[in-house]
Amino acid sequence: MAKMTGAQILLECLQREGVDTIFGYPGGVVLPLYDTLPEFPDLRHVLVRHEQGAAHMADGYARATGRMGVCLGTSGPGATNLVTGICTAFMDSTPVLAITGNVARTLLGKDGFQEADITGITQPITKHNYLVMRAENIAMAVREAVHIATTGRPGPVLIDIPKDVFQEEAEFEWPERLSLRGYKPTTKGHPGMVRRAAELINQAERPIIISGHGTIWGNATDELVSLAEKADIPVITTFLGIGGFPEAHPLSYGWLGMHGMYYANMAADSADVVIGVGMRFDDRAMGRFSDFNPNAKIIHIDIDPAEIGKNFSTAVPIVGDVKHVLPQLFEKVEERRHPDWTGWIDRMREEHPSLHVRESRRLLPQYIVRTLCEETDGEATIVTGVGQHQMWAGQHYFYKRARQLVSSGGLGTMGFELPGAIGAQVGTPDAEVWAICGDAGFQMTMEELAVLVDEQLPVKIAIFNNGYLGMVRQWQQLFYDRNFVSVAVTQPDFVKLADAYGIRALRVETKAEVIPAIREAREHPGPILIDFQIDQEENVWPMVPAGAALSETIEAPAEELAR
């Protein structure tokens, strides 16, 4: 059996696991790995401009494709720069493999140049991590890491490899069989629990399904549609669950939470049976826990047993993969119709039209998103950062399928938009990818514009430029007596910035310019940036104030609607 270096073993293993792209940045301790990369021409390396961008690109790649993303950083600051992206993936259950180099084994623990205990640092934000001390152990570490990252509740896994382990030779042996003691995710629901859940649903007069990100990762849209149609159950989603249930379906009632639809929030708060599917009942979705619908019986279906009962008392817990559990439940539920219940929600939607775009002489972000949806026929992949623009993108673009909306949910990571869009475009080269960006968040990772040029990626960038940290300004206006502190953001000229990178750019200041700009962007074969100069004081509505209950959702005040 021929010997290979640790670097060769690592790259061979990645190829065997189906990896086609690595988002990375070189440095001293990973030079043996980069020296070996040309031997593996089928592995595409995308040179980022900051390791945080690499992690976000791997994340965006994974969310858009459903396959694991891979990022790579050197030791010390290279590794620690990955942390925000790893934590973003961890909070949103994204399968990412982070590979880091470290100082040579003889220097570990001795504060060598650019040493960091990255396995210790990332222990709370990875499903598992490895420090591989021998080249002969690399293959098993990769095999296990990929399995852990992509099965059960997906998530990031980190492999840290000292420099001399990359250089060390060992016999390569691919582990064909894999058995991890203590790691056996439950996939099928317990029959007794499924039966109890079906009984509750069959008795319910006002049932509702709340579908989350787990439905998307479980590829369970068809199964969810079948269950909802058979039992006539209205479906709302979490923000990250958008697209997991077709938004044009008659039983679709939008998404709930802090900036979700008013009628979705009221429906969740008025249901007698709440069925959580692949979601974790988090605070952004559910509002104040103590006052969420105290009369509802909760059925919670999730592959992670740690999530069940964590925030709410659960009448029927079902641990399992939604792809398997929903068909089990489908077999047990009765065909039902709930005309009074769905009629009540329909009336709420008519009386509280959360998605109405008002006429205004100002350039409204809602109008931009709605127009983009119409121009792309709702088919584009939309990648956002975090803040007001993220909420408008969730509200006013109508998604047809899973994986169309790519966004940071649980960690709320500003700066995700551009690198996330790059990862999504690399993973789905035939898709039309739009990065909807906040002007402040864009500045956190705008150096990755260079990657668009290097890789010739046709990402379309829409910057919602209001000169503020918009969501922070909204909170200061509403809850801090308009005491605006450190929220006005000095901007570069984004058009000139794009031009400096050799990227086509447009500036839009009026409503009349929106459609021509979007059409020009779509016709342009390469990357393009549009600087939309939106109304500076536009707020996101509806809104559940921080610490409030869903029943306390507030809508846009009359004076704002008149602006």
How would you summarize what this structure contains?
Helices cover 37% and strands 16% of the residues. It contains 24 helices and 20 strands.
DSSP strand tally:
20
How many H/I helical runs? 24
Gyration radius (Cα, Å) is 24 Å
Q: Give the CATH topology of the largest domain.
A: Rossmann fold
- CATH homologous superfamily of the largest domain? Thiamin diphosphate (ThDP)-binding fold, Pyr/PP domains
Average pLDDT, to the nearest integer? 97
The CATH architecture name of the largest domain reads 3-Layer(aba) Sandwich
Distance between the termini: 75 Å
The strand order across the widest sheet is 3-2-4-5-7-6
How many domains would you count in the coordinates?
Answer: 3
Query: What share of residues is helical?
Result: 25-40%
Uncertain ranges: none
Structural class: alpha/beta
Q: Briefly, what CATH class of the largest domain?
A: Alpha Beta
Work out the strand percent.
15-25%
Biggest sheet features: 6 strands, parallel
Q: So what's the overall shape?
A: globular
Please provide a written account of the structure.
This protein has 563 residues and is an alpha/beta fold. The chain has 3 domains: 3-171, Thiamin diphosphate (ThDP)-binding fold, Pyr/PP domains (Rossmann fold), CATH 3.40.50; 191-351, 3-Layer(aba) Sandwich (Rossmann fold); 365-540, 3-Layer(aba) Sandwich (Rossmann fold). Helix content is 37%, strand content 16%. It contains 24 helices and 20 strands. The strands form 4 sheets. A 6-stranded parallel sheet has the order 3-2-4-5-7-6, with helices on both faces. The protein has a 6-stranded parallel sheet with strand order 11-10-9-12-13-14, with helices on both faces. A 6-stranded parallel sheet has the order 16-15-17-18-20-19, sandwiched between helices. Helix 12 packs antiparallel against helix 15. It starts with a strand and ends with a helix. The mean pLDDT is 97.
